[in-house]
């Protein structure tokens, strides 16, 4: 222990997993510093459906009212073909009813913003800073930061996402930790009053084999665009050019959406991938969220799993204040089976979510339309993995 009294933790990553971990650690009596390599909070990202165990954690933190204020009101999913013809629709309310209304559609960045505000008075946050190295002693860690300073801590939490630096430096150096699912995705926000009026309260999905574009309404009059396509190639040097190339000619207003993608646009672009590492723990360092077990957006619940995993981690640490090694091992044993089930679900459903044929597109649309019928709640819960308990054992 670094000193008599409060223990100290360094959390690498000011995203959903990191901020949730920081909040719960401080509540458990720890001093926490959060370091984040980005110079400021990230606004780029994609719309998420937030439900499941993470929703229960957010409720425990008192954050659900603030999240509801940021959530979009989506009544329907409308399917268009590239020619602009309506090919079907689904009642979005059916998905909310299947989880007793405990589902919110909001930008991932807005969830992170609410967490940042909640953690602001609980943890010091240092932007444009990351972990450069770690030296572990018998009863502490020296965490060497990119700004030239060193923090002495009892615990280092790697919550720095899919491309985790902490994972590479400490937990799994040299490991091939990412499993690509064969897709790349992009997301950005646009301001277009005319398009917003056409979209209304719907999510509009334009699908072609191996590529699709979805446009969602946001609460502030803006629109969120999410794009995904199949590819086996590496990440492009110029993501904007890649987006224009992959979705050129898709029709149904997609060209108008792409016209808003300029050099100034805050664009999210990444592989659709999962994290697979043999261990999440090494010594006093532990991984949480996407750094440990990214399910991919094909599986859904990545943000929910990140919050639930953070809650489970701190629960184990709180129960065993004098046996950190056992607490970290029990955290991994508790969360890993649930995470691996969600990852397996993501691999199974990837081809269904981004079909490779027009027949596959029609089959998906038919299933989602069926899900909107009365009495379909059990079907929806099985399909989207919401039958499990709403919280993880901590």
Secondary-structure blueprint of this entry?
Blueprint: E1 8-12, H1 16-27, E2 31-36, E3 47-50, H2 53-60, H3 64-70, E4 76-80, E5 86-91, H4 93-98, E6 104-107, H5 108-119, E7 124-127, E8 131-136, E9 141-145, E10 150-153, E11 155-158, H6 165-171, E12 178-190, H7 193-199, E13 202-208, E14 211-217, E15 223-230, H8 239-247, H9 254-258, E16 268-275, E17 281-282, E18 285-287, H10 290-293, H11 302-319, H12 324-353, H13 358-371, H14 377-383
Parallel strand pairs: 1-2, 1-11, 2-7, 4-13, 11-18
Antiparallel strand pairs: 3-6, 4-5, 8-9, 9-10, 12-15, 12-16, 13-14, 14-15, 17-18
Helix pairs in contact: 1-5, 1-11, 2-11, 11-12
GO molecular function, one term: FAD binding
Protein name: FAD-dependent oxidoreductase
Pfam families: FAD_binding_3
Q: Which word captures the global form?
A: globular
CATH fold-level assignment of the largest domain: FAD/NAD(P)-binding domain
The stretches of 5 or more residues where confidence is low (pLDDT under 50) are 386-390
Mean of residue pLDDT values? 90
Main sheet, how many strands, which sense, barrel?
7 strands, mixed
Through-space gap between termini: 23 Å
If classified by CATH, what would the architecture of the largest domain be? 3-Layer(bba) Sandwich
Specify the helix fraction band. 25-40%
Q: Classify the beta-strand content into a percent band.
A: 25-35%
Provide the domain count.
Answer: 2
GO molecular function: FAD binding
Protein name: FAD-dependent oxidoreductase
InterPro entries: FAD-bd, FAD/NAD-bd_sf, FAD_aromatic-hydroxylase
Pfam families: FAD_binding_3
